[in-house]
Amino acid sequence: MKTIERVRHQMAAHGVPALLLTDITTVQWLTGFTGSSAAVVLTKEGGEFVTDSRYTIQAHEQVKDLPVRTFGSPKKQSDALIESFKALEVGTVAFERSVTFATWEDWREAFSGVDLVPSPEIVKPLRMVKSPEEVAKIRSACELADACLKHVERMLQPGVTEYDIGLDIEFFFRRNSAEVGFSPIVASGPNSARPHATPSERTLQRGDFVTIDLGAKLDGYCSDITRTYVVGKADDRQREVYGQVLKALIESTRALVPGTSGVAVDARAREVLDEKGLAQYFGHGLGHGLGRAVHDLGSLSTRSTDTIEAGQVWTVEPGVYIEDFGGVRIEDDVHVTPNGPEILNSTSKELTEIQ
Ligand code: ZN
Ligand code: ZN
To answer: Which of 67, 98, 126 is the last residue of a domain?
Structure first.
């Protein structure tokens, strides 16, 4: 079934007569449009794609399933939307809860005569389950991230700055016709105890943990992989911490099967870390959905409300961060299938000591 039909099916199930979508990632997912600003009005049988004149030609090329309405100065998006509502005879429209307060205020004024109601959860469960085509695109982005890790591994030598490694990661993706999915994290020595450190002028030293977290965006889809290395030989404590984080990753990935909950998968990682008293150093959630956005919809965490289903793609990324010692995070991208979890990236997870 076409994505638009799947959305209409859910609208009918929730009794929603018309839906207004402005989240650009959702609009791109629904229509194949790749520009940065657009909206979709969807009704039981009709609908319109609304964008501004910067994208007139592009929208006509890319959007196949909906008629395109464009507008230019002095009109703004809300003017075009009200025209669209009139054309589609929309009296009540459901909007995404993620819109800003400023947008909502603007709409409330501009859309007089149209009832604005917050939408029930229609898009999220649909976006979370990826089509085979979407999984194939994520897989390609993962392959490029694997190649990038292989490429930068040779740079992990004493004297090289985190900043230079970060720059090389970005160059690698660009050189391979991809975008950088997010600013790469390169965190060495004490910096590795900061889960979201940005690359600094610090030079790598013998005995450092180095955490590298990177991802490409290729054909609209992201990868997100982390590996932690040791520059030189690992000591006993480093081996112990690394081994336990790896065990937490393997065990929680194994738990990622249809029917379980995001809470249960997260809990499995914490349980394994707790075997060595390390759960107290794991402050963030275990993982997040992956797709058009790096942090796509859904979470594996203590507060998750998500149920695991076949077709979803998750990151699994346990970490242990100890101040003045360092940190380890290992992250894989995992596709849930009816037969169990499938890891989409292939870089080795064994502790790599860079000699
Ligand atoms: Zn990551
Ligand atoms: Zn991640």
So the answer is: 126
Centre of ligand 1 to C-alpha 339, Å, is: 25
- Amino acid of residue 262: G
Cα(213) to centroid(ligand 1), Å: 5
pTM, two decimal places: 0.94
pLDDT in tens, 68-97: 999 999 999 999 999 999 999 999 999 999
For tokens 């196949």, what's the residue? 64
Instruction: Please answer whether residues 329 and 317 qualify as being in contact, where contact means their C-beta atoms are separated by less than 8 angstroms.
Output: yes
How close is the Cα of 329 to the center of ligand 1, in Å?
A: 9
Q: Which of 126, 154, 171 is the last residue of a domain?
A: 126
Question: Which residues, chain by chain, have CB under 5 Å from ion ligand 2?
Answer: 224, 315
- What is the bridge-based pairing of β-strands 39-43 and 18-21? antiparallel
| CATH code of the domain in which 36 resides | 3.40.350.10
